[in-house]
Amino acid sequence: MIGWGDVYKVVVAMVPLYVALVLGYGSIKWWRIFTPEQGEAINRLVCYFTLPLFTFEFTAHIDPFKMNYLFIGADAIAKVIIVTILALWAKCCSKGSYCWSITSFSLSTLTNSLVVGVPLLQAMYGSMAVDLVVQASVIQAIVWLTILLFVLETRRSGNDLYANNNNNNDNNDNNTAALAFGDKTSKDLEESAKKDDEDRPSFCSLMKTVGLKLAMNPNSYACILGITWAFLANRFHFQMPSIMEGSILIMSRAGIGTAMFSMGLFMAMQKKLIACGPSLTVFGMALRFFAGPLTMAIGSVAVGLHGDVLRVAIIQAALPQSITSFIYAKEYGLHADVLSTAVIFGMIVSLPVLIGYYAVLEFVH
C-alpha cells in the first residue's frame, strides 16, 4: 500500500525537473540571458550530446539475460496495435494525417519511466516492478525511439530533398504566373502535377540521405552500443573501466536536467503558457493516460501476464510523457508545443492518475 512517505519520494524525484524547467523559462522570459537562437543551440546540445550519453549509460548497466520476455512481448503487441490504428487512420480517413500519426504515437506509447516510474512503482510493488520499468525503458530506447528517430529523419530529409529541387521551384513559379494571367489550362495543370511527382526524390536517394544523417546522429547508435556492452559485460563478467565511466557520466548526468531546461526555453518563446491550447492538451492527456494503458492491457492478456506483473505492465504504460520525445519534436519541427505540454502537465496529473490505476488494479487477479 502506498503511504505518504512513498508519495513524498515521487515528489522529490519530480520537483528538480520543474526547477530546471523554471530556470530555462526565466532565462529568456524574465532575465534575458539567452536569445531564441541560443535556445535552439541548447536544444541541439541536449539532442546530440547529453541525451545520447544518458541513454548509453543506463542501457549499458542492465542485465539483458534476466529480462522478462513475456512483458517485453506484451509491450510490443501494445505498440503494434497503436501503430496499426494510426496508420489506418492516416491512410483511410479523410482527416487522417501522417504527421499527427507520428505525434500520436509518441503521446500514446513513449513514457518517462526512469524519473517517475522507478520511485512510484518501487513503492507500489517493490524491486520486481523497478526491474520491469528499467527493462521497458531500455526497449523503448533501443526499438521505439530509434524507429521514431528514423521516421522523423525520413520526413525531414524528404521535405529537404523536394524543396532543394531547382526544377520544382521553377515549376511552381511558372504555375503561379500562369494562374495570375488566367491562361492555365486543365492539361497544363495535369502536366504540372505530373512534374511535381517526378521531382519528388526516389526511395533509394531518400534512404541514402536518411542513412547518412542517422550515421552522424549519436542517438541512432547510443542505445545499440549500450545494449552491446551490457551483453558482453554480463556474459564475460567484466566492468566498465573507471576512466570510461567517468567520461560518460560527466555529460549523461546532465541529460534529463538540460532537457527540462531546454523545454523551459521553448515555453518562454511561446505566446501562451499552454502552447498547444486546451483541446490539444486534453487530447494528449487522453492518449497518454488511457490509450497506452488500454493497449498494454490487451497485449498483457494476449501473452498471459497475470498478478503483479500484469498490474505493473498497465501502470508503467500510464507513466508521464517521455522528455526525449519533446527534444526530438523540437529538433525535427513537429508539434513540439503538443509534446512540451504533454510532458509538463502530464507529470503534474500523473500522480493521482497512477494511484487511481493502482487502486483499481488491486481488484484484478
Automatic annotation (TrEMBL):
Pfam families: Mem_trans
Residues passing through the membrane, by range: 6-25, 45-62, 68-90, 97-120, 132-152, 221-238, 250-268, 280-303, 341-360
Keyword field contains DNA-binding: no
Membrane topology label: Multi-pass membrane protein
GO CC terms in record: membrane
Main function: May act as a component of the auxin efflux carrier.
Protein name as catalogued: Auxin efflux carrier component
